[in-house]
Amino acid sequence: MQLQQMYQEIILDHYRQPHGSGLREPYDAETHHVNPTCGDEVTLRVKLDDAAETVVDVSYDTLGCSISQASVSVLNDLVVGRSVADSMRILDAFQEMAQSRGKVEPDEDVLGDGVAFAGVAKYPARVKCALLGWMAFKDAVSRTPAAVSTAAVSTDAVSTDAVSTDAVSTEPGSADRAEKQDQKGPVG
Amino acid sequence: MTAVSAPRVGAGGPGSGVDVARIREDFPILARTVREDRPLVYLDSGATSQRPRQVLDAEREFLENHNAAVHRGAHQLAEEATDAYESARERIAAFVGAMTHEVVFVKNATEGINLVAYAFGNASVRTGLTEESERFALSPGDEIVVTELEHHANLVPWQELCRRTGATLRWYSVTDDGRIDLDSLELTDRTKVVAFTHQSNVTGAVAPVDELVRRAQAVGALTVLDACQSVPHMPVDLHALGVDYAVFSGHKMLGPSGVGVLWGRSELLQAMPPFLTGGSMIETVRMEATTYAPPPQRFEAGVPMTSQAVGLGAAVDYLRLIGMDAVAAHEAELTRVALDGLRDVPGVRLVGPDNTTERGGAVSFVVDGVHAHDLGQVLDDRGIAIRVGHHCAWPLHRRYGIVATARASFAVYNTVDEAAQLADGIRAAQDFFGVGR
Ligand SMILES: Cc1ncc(COP(=O)(O)O)c(C=O)c1O
């Protein structure tokens, strides 16, 4: 039966007892992501340390299936206490595995419990569920004040377009735009 | 012309129903297995139906022998292709009680609704036609009325039309058992359009069309019927229903994707400005200005889908030979079996009427403690294909405070045994996730 391959015990455990769930103060940025095909939702908050180098907390509230809920619980395990740069590396590894159609052998040293999601990668319809919380996290990190001001600086630096009158604000809402202009992105 | 071989209909007299086993032989895909050799149990015909050999053969026969651009060219193939295309229109029209020239081929129901909405929008900015199209013009203060259970296809185009014209969108809300709540709204003399679905793709509820039409007519509003989930499953006579426009999609009625129908009352289509413009839909063209062809050509700009229209013609032939009364009776039986099965499973909550009165075969539900997505996965592992999510009816799900439902839906080729497997699958999911029992 393929079902057990997908719903590994680790996933079911995280689903039944999610780690670090609930929304907490204080936080630097909050995002709300939805999966429009099924309506799954996650609200996620990120708190970095004063130097904006370490992830101090990831808190969240989700409405969704076992895969999306377990995956954000694993995210919390893997990134809280890590540097932002490491977190992004883990995120990239998780995303690569999830989108690999089962072709990438996951590295347990990097992904910890996250390797349990390798089976999900074989079900394209569920990959979005597994990534929902991770994308919300990536987005939240890019919206922290530190990341937004970095993005603003780097956008300025690459903006050689003399007619561009688009002032880059430091409001979180402008992070998206800044990130699109500077494909390097604000972090990582 | 394409010869359509007869579907395998029950040998018995009236009341004996359809011979599903023989019908299934016409659908090669139903014989396949999925996920490690499980026989496919296809309970997702509400999303798209499967196609019988007769439809596939008709498309192939057309392409191998008659393919050409229709309504163009003086050669024999062009003539034959045009005949095949127009013959399909004629049979499809007859199938829904319409006149041939009232049937406009579109890509799907979504495009059909957009066609009407954009035509009204064009009338509102006084482009397109003459004084007769004034009747479609909307201005600030006018109202478009929909219902809370609409598919996004019959909601978003009206929201957009409101945005473009300044009209106001209002809606009937729904009852706890998933029907349109007729007490929730009074139409006014500013109501210009009332758009609603004949049969909900989520709750299965069949709308009280007579009453909605009566109310709309009393204030002089036009009615638009989303017949996507009714035309494939029950006898429909559009003139008898009294609506002004209707849409449906080929791929939900055993026909090809890429073809659907907009039907409109003759005098309305006659007066309505076009949506898409270009080749085929013109009468005369000068550099300064253009006049338009009469309907249905006015609404079929460009070279249309052709083998798909021919395939849809074959699909209605197929359904007609089985008989839509027999189709409806069979699907009512499947629905009854599914509902009976669900009733016996603790922790299952139905979203929709729990009996087959004024109800079709979309059976949506939630299972306490098992998210719809996870339920769908367990069923899939058993070979049972259902749909999970909000089924393009997000506001309806919001109304019930739920994120997603699981939905089983039927077609004439489903067996009673398949309908019964639904409940078994739910029990298996409850066991797997350790809830419920
Ligand atoms: C009630 C209803 N209306 C409209 C549509 C849209 O049909 P299509 O996607 O073929 O345009 C659907 C299909 O899901 C439907 O069920």
Can you count the helices of chain B?
13
The biggest beta sheet of chain B reads: 7 strands, mixed
Report the span from N to C terminus of chain B: 58 Å
Radius of gyration of chain B: 22 Å
Report strand % of chain B: 15-25%
- Residue ranges of chain B: pLDDT <50 for 5 or more in a row? 10-16
> Bound small molecules, which ones?
pyridoxal-5'-phosphate
Q: Please tell me the overall pLDDT of chain B.
A: 94
First-residue to last-residue Cα separation of chain A: 40 Å
Average of the residue pLDDT scores of chain A: 82
Low-confidence stretches of chain A: 155-188
Structural class of chain A: alpha+beta
Q: Outline the biggest β-sheet of chain A.
A: 3 strands, antiparallel
Shape assignment of chain A: globular
Radius of gyration of chain A from CA coordinates:
17 Å
Strand residue percentage of chain A = 5-15%
Structural class of chain B: alpha/beta
Query: Looking at the structure, what is the overall shape of chain B?
Result: globular
What can you tell me about this protein's structure?
The complex is a heterodimer of chains A (188) and B (437). Chain A is an alpha+beta fold. Chain A is built from 8 helices and 3 strands; from the N terminus they run ααβββαααααα. Chain A has helices spanning 3-6, 9-16, 66-79, 84-98, 108-111, 124-142, 145-158, 175-181; strands at residues 29-35, 40-48, 55-63. Chain A has a 3-stranded antiparallel beta sheet, with helices on one face. In chain A, β1 and β2 form a beta hairpin. The longest helix of chain A has 19 residues, at 124-142. In chain B, strands 4-10-9-8-7-5-6 form a 7-stranded mixed beta sheet, sandwiched between helices. Chain B has a 4-stranded antiparallel beta sheet with strand order 13-14-17-16, covered by helices on one side. Chain B is 35% helix and 16% strand. The chains are: A alpha+beta (188), B alpha/beta (437). Chain A binds chain B through residues 1-3, 6-7, 12, 37-41, 63-67, 123, 126, 129, and chain B through 35-36, 371-374, 377-378, 381, 388-390, 394, 397, 403-404, 432-433. Residues 108-110, 151, 153-154, 197, 201, 226, 228-229, 249, 392 of chain B line the site of pyridoxal-5'-phosphate.
